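Why do we care about 3D structure at all? Because function follows from shape, and shape follows, mostly, from sequence. That is the central idea of this module. The next example makes it concrete: a single protein chain, its amino acid sequence, and then its structure expressed as tokens.
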Amino acid sequence: MRKEFPMLLTVVAALTVILSQFFFHIAEWNLMDVLDKWLNVMWGIAIGLGIVNLSVVHGKKIMRRAPGFYNSVVLLAILYVYAILGLWTTTQGYYHAWIFDNVYAPLDSTVFGLVAFFITTAAYRAFKVRTWEATVMLLAGMILLLGSAPIGEAIWADWAHLRQWFLDIPNAAGMRGIVLGIYLGGFATALRVMLGLERAWMGAMGGR
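And the structure:
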């Protein structure tokens, strides 16, 4: 029953979504609204379990004085202080919003600023012309960069039009192919889950 009940619940939820999308009379039952409410409940439970798990894991690390335990102290302190502050003043409160805008936002910008350097080095390695695919990628990257940078317009006035053509035609066609493949893969995975062929999502209970 430990395996059968989660699988049955998954199949019922999946069939509810599918039938509500394709059959008008079933859609009138508003079953999707019920599933949305249960999804919100599950989100709350998942967040609560995540907080408990973080507290247990990092609490043990602090008690053992493991290497880097001070990072765990900072993590738990921020987690509970910020959560309590949000419950006390709401997420739109002055102090809660001030911490988010003046602490989190600058840290977020700093991290993305550092990532830009890694992206630059990765692009340099990717744009080395070794094969014809790398050559096409290099040419496309140069066209897009020159079409976006002011120097490109100074060199040739139609760089921006050429860049837009690349985005609207070749790029859009490639992205649609990728998205189609993603959806087909997602459909195949969902079908395997509904038929009971894929059980990895049940964790330890999914073993045959």
